[in-house]
Amino acid sequence: MKDIRVVTDFPRKVREIENLWIPMPDGVKLAARIWLPEDAEADPVPAILEYLPYRKRDGTVERDALTHPYFAGHGYAGVRVDMRGTGDSEGVCKGEYLKQEQDDCLAVIEWLAKQPWCSGTVGMIGISWGGFNGLQVAARRPPALKAVISLCSTDDRYNDDVHYLGGAQMCDNLMWGTTAWAIAMTPPDPLIVGDRWREMWEGRLDGNGIWMQDWFEHQRRDDFYKHGSICEDYSDVEIPVYAVGGWADGYPNPIFRMLEHLPGVRKGLIGPWGHKYPHFAMPGPRMGFLQECLRWWDQYLKGIDTGIADEPMLRAWMQDPAPPAAIYDERPGRWVAEPSWPGPGIGEHTLALSPGKLAEDAGSDDVLTIRSPMTAGLSSGAWCGYGVLPTLPVDQRMEAGNALVFETEPLEEALEILGFPEFEVKLALDKPVALISATLSLVLEDGGASRISYGILNLTHRHDDLDLKPMTPGKAETVRFKLRCCGQRFEKGQRIRLAIATGHWPIVFPGPENATLSIHCAGSRLILPVRKPQPLDKTLAAFKGPESAAPMAQDVIKAGEPFRREVTTNQITGEATYTIISDAGTVRHPHTGMTLTQRQTEIFIVHPDDPNSARGTVTWDKTYARGDWNAHVSVSATVRALRDVWRMETHLVARAGDEVVVDREEVKEFPRDLN
């Protein structure tokens, strides 16, 4: 892979156990793949656990090849376990982050600690789902678990995951929900589980369910989301936590909260990256993340003083200005550091509103109105940038006609921000349920506008995410909400722009009715977390260059079509269509002989004048084959944002060769709960 130094000569020779069964207390067995030093039974080592539903046999196999042998070669056991009901493991999986998932993980950790090749101590590492459950399991306090590295994860399952954003229904609820459903419907590998693969697969097809139905059922921050949210009681997590993420990812916000609230040892690292491990993520610069992991593991699993405990609590990439683009190989900038969070170098810089302007002096007495078309937000890119695809926001000048735009004069001196911008606004509505979107951009000298941050609030959630309050039409209220965290430098001569709209498509679905928003300039302000350079910045040692174990070999049987992300407008009907097509083609993994074919489409359609025209359809097709064995899964899900209900239409087809195993269609409606 680009820029990565491949390491094949390690301090300790590595052996691999392709599959090993870990028994659960109820008799179900989980499938594990393990890499460990050849002499580990004579010289036991700590275990590093990655615990996921993403199929160790083929789903994460490329990433696992880069990571776990590297850990093993440096004196650890890299352990990759398929969760219950996924991959090659037995049982069924009825949802994400359930208590059963945590209970199984506790049993896995206990089992690992007792193995003759294990020293009795365990660490957990994971990105996204694996980052989530690392924190959740840490809160259960298993004795053998001594440290966690959690990447691109969250402390709050409601406010910082794929389901709801400021109480607004996220389009990712459908996108990710369909992806998770497709994964949950896939079969185990007959070479691992034998002839019972068909029985196990049918158990999943009937028992794993459609998890996103739960997410549409629970539209408030109730006990469903409180479970697994460590922010409910940060004191439950006592062991050291290294929280890692990127500005282009969907999950940077929780890092700041965890640094502020976790009671024990914690450390944060935020780069320019998307939703990938930092040694191969984009945008760069990439860094020696596996070496950084070893420093953490050596310190807290082996008791070796690596110096990491004496370094600043937070290290973040301060991005320099860059023209808007859907993808970057690298983002210019520099590393900065804070000894704690909130950092001592962070202060508030307030800008008041007047028509078309942001300024430090008092705002005007004007009342401005906006009723955005449903297409407002089409330049926003994906909620979560996956780092190697062109899904970042493009030029925000495209949004100027959809929003109220406020802008500073050219800055007289450079300014840097780090943390959460906030928007305090005095507003009124003509409807009881509506959204407000606030987008912060950097305006370059040539007029190009690069999005820096944004925030969305369903105004029925303005006080609480459980006890909701409709707006009183015509009554002005003052609301304050946080935008997404960021680290950004603005140069002298550039401008700061704030754009206010009543929608943000297709990040979130529109509200149930067209609504007009009135902004009282005199009671509104933008609050920026301005950071002054700190002496600590100059003390930072450079990260080592990225390196990994040898990449996994694979044969490309058929290349997929190029990635597509496009917006089209029907000039007759007026509807706008947002389309993403991701086609992985067909590849063969020589080490297992398995051939895989995958294709995903996402289509979101809306009429600019009709919020109830909003609809999205996501499809997945997956095929697994080897010799005479062939299993195919096709799923399709459509969500329609009708005035009073969310209408979900799903279709599952599963085939074993030419035989149809399942062909099931379902329609469900979920009453809209003030969103």
UniProtKB/TrEMBL annotation:
Residues 294-544 form the Xaa-Pro dipeptidyl-peptidase C-terminal domain. The keyword Hydrolase applies. This is CocE/NonD family hydrolase. Signal peptide: none annotated. It comes from the Bacteria. Keywords: Hydrolase. InterPro entries: AB_hydrolase_fold, CocE/Ser_esterase, Galactose-bd-like_sf, Xaa-Pro-like_dom, Xaa-Pro_dipept_C, Xaa-Pro_dipeptidyl-ppase/CocE. It comes from Mesorhizobium vachelliae. The keyword Mitochondrion does not apply. GO terms for molecular function: hydrolase activity.
